[in-house]
Design brief:
Elements (H helix, E strand, L loop, with lengths): L1 H50 L4 H4 L19 E8 L5 E8 L2 E6 L3 E7 L3 E5 L7 E8 L3 E2 L6 E4 L3 E6 L1 E2 L1
Antiparallel strand pairs: 1-4, 1-6, 2-3, 2-5, 5-9, 6-8, 7-10
């Protein structure tokens, strides 16, 4: 009889430990869920307040930290100009000028002026021509350094680098 009572008491202790752990687990889940809902509602409230111009000064003390959007006439970099001429008497539309590998102009005139920025690579694509052609850099703006004005470039059915732009 002692053995039966002892087993019953032990079983009763196990059940009570399980119920306590279930209650603790359920309580933690409840606290986490409640905290998530409160934080989510607070974030929505703050975002709504930031969108309202009349309430915004209550949350933000320094308006300069926000910055301002760029207008269409503002540039993040300085530009320069370079002019390249075809030293033949006739135009050649098979000759293409490339800036950073992208076609920007064809020689439908003898002189082409390009707007360039720092780090641009200017090349000529003569892969569609059958004869040798000569080009010359005839002018560059003052803020472009390292460009040899008067430099002549001969191309014959290939892509040739003319210059790399470095703006001061």
């Amino acid at each position: 009889m002692k053995i039966v009572v002892f087993k019953a008491d032990k079983k009763k202790d196990k059940i009570s430990k399980k119920s306590v752990s279930r209650f603790i687990n359920f309580g933690i889940e409840r606290v986490l869920f409640f905290a998530f809902v409160c934080i989510f509602i607070a974030i929505i409230f703050v975002q709504g307040t930031l969108l309202n111009p009349s309430l915004r000064p209550y949350l933000i003390k320094d308006e300069m930290a926000d910055g301002r959007p760029l207008a269409s006439e503002e540039y993040l970099y300085r530009e320069g100009e370079i002019s390249i001429a075809l030293l033949e008497s006739e135009n050649n539309e098979d000759l293409k000028l490339l800036v950073n590998g992208d076609e920007v102009a064809v020689f439908n005139q003898n002189r082409i002026t390009l707007s360039v920025k720092d780090g641009d690579v200017i090349e000529v694509d003569a892969s569609l021509t059958e004869r040798e052609t000569e080009l010359e850099i005839i002018s560059a703006s003052e803020n472009i350094s390292g460009v040899e004005v008067g430099k002549k470039i001969k191309v014959n059915s290939n892509i040739e680098e003319i210059t790399r732009i470095s703006i001061e």
